[in-house]
Amino acid sequence: MNIHEYQAKAILREYGAPVSEGRAVLKADEAKTAAGELDGPLWVVKAQIHAGGRGKGHFVEESAGEKGGVRLAKSVEEAEAEAKKMLGKTLVTHQTGPAGKQVNRIYIEAGSDIERELYLALLVDRVTSSVSVVCSTEGGMDIEEVAASTPEKILSFSIDPATGYAPFHGRKVAFALGLKGAAMKQCVKLIGDLYRAFMDKDMEQLEINPLIVMPDGNLKVLDAKVGFDGNAVYRHADIAALRDETEEDAKELAASKYDLNYIALDGEIGCMVNGAGLAMATMDIIKLYGAEPANFLDVGGGATKEKVTEAFKIITSDKNVKGILVNIFGGIMRCDVIAEGVIAAVKEVGLEVPLVVRLEGTNVDQGKEIIASSGLNVIAADNLSDGAEKIVKAVKG
User: Fold this and answer.
1) Catalytic residue check, 258
2) What is the largest CA-CA distance in the chain?
3) pLDDT of residue 83
4) What pLDDT sits at residue 182?
5) Is 185 flagged in the annotation as binding?
6) Strand runs (DSSP E) across 130-255, as ranges?
7) β strands within 152-264, DSSP E
8) N or C: fewer beta carbons within 10 Å in the chain?
9) Does 46 carry a binding-site annotation?
10) Which parts of the sequence belong to the ATP-grasp domain (predicted)?
11) Same domain, 348 and 257
């Protein structure tokens, strides 16, 4: 689960991180009042979407050469004008894809003087089962670009979860970033504060890019990107309340409400499979036969007729889907339950694209009989290869 920059900064402020004063704006007529509550002489107006690269992005509605989603204003009136230019518009960045994302929130904060820009992040390291700290002197840039061009400028190390954070971890970061004096002491405290927030809130990503050194030698968190472990959000009602459903894919959101593992893709063949491994294999074999999967969808081992029905409705709601492949190997999941769910869904939403069904395993004969006696135009498949070949042929001719 991701949250907006202004929400991330509010959390970090609670843990003692140095963050500028700012105001979130949802309506254009609130912008002037919000900016007026902050000290000038410089204001920063930031589009709030769940994607990076906002400063380098562009708005679909504006002409070429216009400024991106992070803009400077030298007066309250200018801040208001910039906010009005952004709200309700579509911002395209390298992370949103060409479709972009609509800006429904603006964050206005007090400007800061910058002497140096640094990079800092805490991430879950699955290899070491610990929290990794990543830092670089090359702040303000995409860390992927730094890793590709100057990897020697990146320091990464893990914090042992058994012992947790210790001041030497903070000093290690400070030395790598070339910090001295007050900035070094602040860095030691900051890493400790961030680690505590990371663990307390079940974060899986905490990225500060940039962390700045100001002319007076003090540190400040200028930008923040925070993501949480979706499986742990139930433990944090305050975090769950920050969820912005308008930033999420409608199909993925609907799937989450029915405990379905769904990820939207760009292809034309919808997939309904039980088991993550089998779902991956199904996607691979669709590509092998010359087509692209439209989604990853694992209905799980204990899916009910209602879940299967909802899964089918989610697939058919994707306008890019030109055909559907149902691939079920019944172990815990029974083939007859899948068949009943598919039939119920087709009767409810209709079937306007080719449908290939491959069933094998528990109650397979009952499942096939349910499909065969339904009177629906369903193409039966004997195995996975046969199913993939048939659906690709049905879609592409």
Assistant:
1) no
2) 79
3) 93
4) 93
5) no
6) 130-136, 154-159, 203-213, 219-221, 225-228
7) 154-159, 203-213, 219-221, 225-228, 261-264
8) C
9) yes
10) 9-55
11) yes
Q: Is residue 8 part of a domain?
A: no
Give the pLDDT of the chain (397 residues) as one tens digit per residue: 999 999 999 999 999 999 999 999 999 889 999 999 998 799 999 999 998 888 888 898 776 556 789 999 999 999 999 999 999 999 998 888 888 999 999 999 999 999 999 999 999 998 889 999 999 999 988 888 888 889 999 999 999 999 999 999 999 999 999 999 999 999 999 999 999 999 999 999 999 999 999 999 999 999 999 999 988 999 999 999 999 988 887 888 888 887 888 998 999 999 999 888 999 999 999 999 999 999 999 987 666 777 778 888 899 888 899 999 989 887 767 888 878 888 888 888 788 899 998 888 888 888 888 888 888 888 888 899 999 999 999 998 7
Tokens of 396: 């592409």
363 labelled binding-site residue:
no
Task: Give 396's contacts (C-beta < 8 A, 6+ positions apart).
Answer: 290, 291
Contact 153, 146 (CB under 8 A): yes
Q: Is position 75 annotated in a ligand binding site?
A: no
Domain span at residue 203 reads: 116-240
Say whether 270 counts as a known binding-site residue.
no
106, 83 contact by CB (below 8 A): yes
pLDDT (0 to 100) of residue 13: 97
> Domain check: are 176 and 270 in the same one?
no
- Domain stops at, among 240, 260, 287: 240
Residue type, 317: S
**Is 30 annotated as ligand-binding?**
no
Q: Verify that 272 and 381 share a domain, yes or no.
A: yes
Domain holding 283: CATH number? 3.40.50.261
380 and 281 co-located in one domain? yes
Identified catalytic residue from 119, 165, 195, 258: 119
* Residue 160 C-beta-side C-alpha neighbours within 13 Å: 4
207 given a catalytic annotation: yes
Where does a domain end: 240, 265, 296? 240
Structure tokens of 22?
A: 């700012």
141 assigned binding-site residue: no
- Give the burial string for 13-36 (b: 16+ CB within 10 Å, else e): bebebbbeebbbbeebebbbebbe
Place of tokens 């815990």: 332
Q: Label residues 331-355 b or e (16+ Cβ within 10 Å = b).
A: eebbbbbbbbbbbbbbeeeebebbb
